[in-house]
Design a protein that fits this description.
heterodimer; A: alpha+beta; Beta Polymerase, domain 2; 2 domains; four-stranded antiparallel β-sheet; 16 helices; B: alpha/beta; Rossmann fold; five-stranded parallel β-sheet; 29% helix; binds iron/sulfur cluster
């Protein structure tokens, strides 16, 4: 099949007319085969109305050849035909088909679990509401159901979890999301104010503000054919790795808390504080809001800040390694973390798992290696860390190892910054190429983030799509708890730490 | 095993902030802005056009912290007129007090608005239920941080509970998504009287970037009395701590 082929170092957007339009049958055939191989996975697959047609866009990633492949197909708006569902063959396609079906009432023939994805304000089907979500239920005298949410017991975001349990053991968990839906994608399109769009990207998921705003900046820079300097790219990469460190440490603390390991919890709380305060001392915000801006930066590093960051990450790296050593040498912790919440590699691949959680199962999904961008494509020779067991311990060890890798990367990159080299101020006025398509593909701390911007004939963004890694990985969590005691749910959940708002948009 | 623990402990040392009334944030932190009018207000005009949430107005020259996301962009456009200080004491009992004017030297707390039962009942212990309604997880993480080893707000008896039945009030984050409007209402009704309402974060105060979104439902804020408004994107733990200490009569700004 014919694809438009590009890669993640490209600085250009793609003219819509250059994206090959194919037949659904050909695409179905092609994807049925390709998705069997680990080499390929879908970065995004969505539809949007174009005149009287509904146009479907597919962005397929080839991890081995480092290519990004784009194709599209159209359906007449009032066509009443059912498209054969790919989900039936490859569950990885499920969230995408669910979204398309929810938004446009597209019929996917023989699609399993045909349920609304996030109760989007724009959904066509108004008959179902979030409080009548059709949970799967299993009948049986020895079974009972446990309903949790939408509001949870801690200070976290809402989502509804329905467990079907056999005694203490979880037979099945279904997760219904959408409570956090704010209309993010629509808000991108509703405004022409590039700064407002930038701030929107920062609030898609606050714990990944740097990763999402980087994806936005990359998409917009491609649309305005803007080449950013090596220095700016290095600074963005430092910010991304700081975000990764902070969240991995936070999650180590959260896991420690849930097993009553108070020493690890408080040590990690303090270390996360140092890390986010480092980000704050750089840019004024503990989550890095305000740091990533299209085409430039308001907060270029100074030599004092370089020294401050270097010192802090070194200290955090050293102390965090002590915590990780302590975890590894504490049998009581290992007995909770090991062999708990296993997602095997084959399952991870089938459901399209991405990022850190996929790597913990041995599936090497990492855009920093497969589709390098920013300093990963130039200054760093990134090698993905993987684990094999796919259990809570593996996901925890991923964090421990990635933090020390981040420390090294940050130090390496700080050493390359030449503070005399000018960094341009952000540009919110740049004109965007009309009728073009651009992507931003960034490996955040959770995994693969994909943003897509499409412009109309006036060069205004008229479709903006966001994919958070959580879109794929929520199902991994549901699979992880199968067969586990329900009391192990909290640590399984924290070991993934998925985003609700990033999923619900 | 024991040695690795001793190592962690030794490196950890003492982490808590000894006096929560004596905290200075980094100079980079963007807190209360200071506005200075000049004859030529064209820079402010440019900044107001750019402001992503229409928090900034030229005539009269005001900056509404309830809408502001503290991106700092206006101060870069109009450095003569707008400057952000690291003053984190941004909370108030009055929504109007969040509107900064050139005369503002501090955000007025307006203690006269505090219902008498609040300091009477909650000055020693205040248990809160948090509801995120479209919050982006950053405000939520900052609220978690108020109880962590650094801030340890629990030492003042302020903690978050797992159930609304055990709580004295609700802390709302996020612009209030439509899909959360009902659960929020149910949660609020489940809290025994008297109860307090705290809205945390500029998104919760005004809807922020989502104030016009069809997917947001602000009726809770219109229908209920808000006791404490806390701006921020996200609200810094110290802003929360300062606001709650003031409303419970533990200190006076
Ligand atoms: S700092 Fe606040 S007032 Fe200034 S531009 Fe940003 S949102 Fe607007």
């Amino acid at each position: 099949m014919n694809y438009y082929i590009t890669d993640n170092t490209s600085t250009q957007s793609i003219a819509l007319k250059d994206i090959p339009e194919v037949e659904y049958a050909a695409l179905y055939e092609d994807l049925s085969e390709r998705l069997k191989q680990e080499q390929y996975h879908i970065a995004h697959y969505f539809a949007r109305p174009e005149q009287s047609r509904l146009m479907f866009y597919l962005i397929l990633l080839d991890d081995e050849k480092h290519q990004i492949m784009v194709a599209r197909f159209a359906m007449e708006y009032y066509d009443d035909i059912a498209l054969p569902s790919l989900t039936a063959l490859h569950p990885a396609v499920h969230p995408f088909e669910r979204e398309i079906a929810e938004l446009y009432n597209v019929e996917f023939g023989a699609m399993p679990w045909k349920k609304p994805l996030r109760f989007d304000e724009n959904r066509r089907c108004r008959t179902s509401t979030i409080d009548t979500y059709p949970f799967y239920s299993i009948e049986g005298d020895s079974l009972h159901e446990v309903n949790v949410g939408p509001i949870h017991a801690g200070i976290i975001e809402p989502g509804a979890f329905r467990f079907t349990c056999n005694g203490e053991n979880v037979l099945h968990l279904e997760i219904a999301l959408g409570y956090q839906h704010r209309g993010v994608e629509d808000e991108f399109v509703a405004t022409d104010n590039r700064l407002r769009q930038t701030l929107l990207s920062e609030s898609i998921a606050g714990d990944s503000a740097i990763a999402h705003s980087s994806a936005f900046a990359m998409a917009v820079e491609r649309l305005s054919n803007n080449k950013t300097s090596q220095r700016l790219q290095a600074e963005r990469t430092i910010a991304l790795e700081l975000e990764r460190m902070a969240m991995h440490i936070a999650d180590t603390g959260a896991l420690s808390m849930d097993v009553g390991y108070q020493l690890g919890q408080v040590a990690c709380e303090a270390l996360r504080t140092v890390t986010i305060n480092t980000t704050q001392a750089w840019c004024g915000n503990r989550f890095g809001k305000g740091l990533i801006r299209p085409a430039g930066s308001n907060k270029p590093l100074t030599s004092e800040k370089i020294e401050m960051i270097r010192k802090n990450v070194e200290e955090v790296g050293r102390r965090y390694a002590e915590v990780s050593d302590d975890i590894k040498s504490s049998p009581t912790l290992l007995s909770r973390f090991e062999q708990c919440g296993i997602v095997p590699r084959t399952e991870m691949h089938r459901i399209g798992g991405v990022g850190m959680a996929a790597r913990a199962s041995g599936l090497g999904r990492d855009l920093r290696t497969s589709h390098p961008f920013a300093a990963y494509s130039t200054k760093l020779n990134h090698e993905s860390i993987t684990q094999h067991d796919g259990d809570v311990m593996a996901r925890l060890m991923m964090r421990c190892q990635e933090v020390s890798q981040s420390v090294e990367y940050i130090k390496q990159l700080l050493a390359t910054i030449d503070t005399t080299e000018a960094v341009p101020a952000p540009n919110y006025e740049q004109t965007l190429a009309p009728e073009h398509f651009a992507f931003g593909l960034v490996e955040g701390w959770r995994g693969e983030i994909c943003h897509i911007a499409i412009t109309n004939e006036e060069g205004k963004i008229d479709t903006y799509k966001v994919k958070e890694p959580s879109l794929h990985n929520w199902l991994a969590l549901a699979l992880a708890v199968r067969g586990e005691g329900i009391s192990d749910f909290p640590i399984c959940n924290k070991s993934f730490n998925l985003s609700y708002c990033g999923h619900d948009l | 095993m024991i040695f690795s623990k001793i190592k962690v402990l030794r490196s950890h040392g003492k982490q808590y902030i000894p006096d929560l009334n004596d905290v200075t944030l980094t100079e980079e932190f963007r807190g209360r802005p200071v506005l200075t009018p000049t004859d030529d207000m064209s820079d402010v005009e440019a900044a107001a056009t750019l402001c992503p949430t229409q928090a900034l107005s030229v005539a009269p020259f005001t900056l509404d912290l309830g809408r502001c996301l503290f991106c700092g962009e206006c101060a870069l456009r109009a450095p003569k007129n707008i400057r952000f200080t690291n003053d984190y004491k941004l909370g108030s009992t009055s929504r109007e007090a969040l509107v900064v004017t050139p005369q503002t030297e501090k955000i007025e707390f307006h203690p006269e608005n505090i219902r008498p039962e609040i300091p009477q009942l909650f000055s020693h212990a205040l248990k809160l239920r948090q509801v995120s309604a479209g919050g982006d997880a950053s405000v939520e993480m900052e609220l978690n941080a108020t109880g962590n080893v650094n801030f340890d707000f629990g030492r003042y008896g302020v903690e978050f509970t797992a159930s609304p039945r055990h709580s004295d009030g609700v802390v709302i984050t996020g612009p209030i998504s439509k899909n959360m409007a009902e659960p929020l209402d149910i949660c609020y009704k489940a809290i025994p009287d008297p109860k307090i309402v705290i809205v945390c974060g500029s998104e919760a105060c005004s809807g922020g970037l989502f104030s016009e979104s069809k997917a947001v439902d602000r009726s809770f804020i219109e229908n209920n009395r808000v006791d404490l408004w806390l701006p921020g994107a996200p609200t810094h733990p110290m802003t929360f701590i300062d606001g709650v200490m003031n409303i419970t009569g533990k200190k006076q700004r």
